[in-house]
Amino acid sequence: MSKTAFLIIDVQYDFLPPSGSLAVPDGEAILPVIHDLLDQSKWDWSVIVASQDYHPQNHISFASNHSPHKPFEKMTLTDARGTSYEQALWPDHCIQDTRGTQLEAKLVEDLKTWGDKVKLARKGTHEKLEAYSAFEGYITSFQTPDEPTFEQTSADPGKTVLPKQSPLTIYLREKGIEKVVIVGLATDFCVLQTALSAISASFDTLVLGPGIRGISPEDTHKAMQRIESLGGTVVDKGKENWTDIVKQWMK
Ligand SMILES: [Zn+2]
Fold it and tell me: Which value, to the nearest 10 degrees, does the dihedral of the CA atoms of residues 67, 72, 77, 83 take?
């Protein structure tokens, strides 16, 4: 059996109804699915990585830092690498030291049962870099995470790091991982970009429909098509026998 990592993307209060500042519609529906996937009597993950959007208050993606622009507008910005790009502006979310950035409490309890098989991937810590993919984050202890360093918050970030050379890829390769199963929020942004990075880093990649939700139905559909067209495996949201499908795929 090849080694599989379980990647749980951004299951944080600010992305969850009812009170998240950037709540993903129906986002709470993924919680029982993830709970099941963390049941050690049913699943045997070699590694689990939970990603955490972890922004400073002055983050480049916040509409509040580009007044008079409003959340969900798009605007052209230049990031810390001097790259010009189109940013979707967001409401303030997942700010360090707020409840909104915390992982959902039951998920935290479930993750604790896996001990040091669990790592945290913190991303979006640099004030002038957007980071949707978990492969753009730094890897740290889940139980006692490191705060971001100066390099990870405001220094010149240097060249773009390709997914193949990213901290998460290096960690997964060290652990002999060949396959990744991805769940979390939101399908059309951080789940999509994490899946694209995983495929680009040559991991066999499965995105589990019942364990993800998106912001826009149209973009969510496009995201799934894109993942499949690049060689990823997508399990449809409606598949009731997803457990069997995933177990078969992991063999
Ligand atoms: Zn963010």
Answer: 150
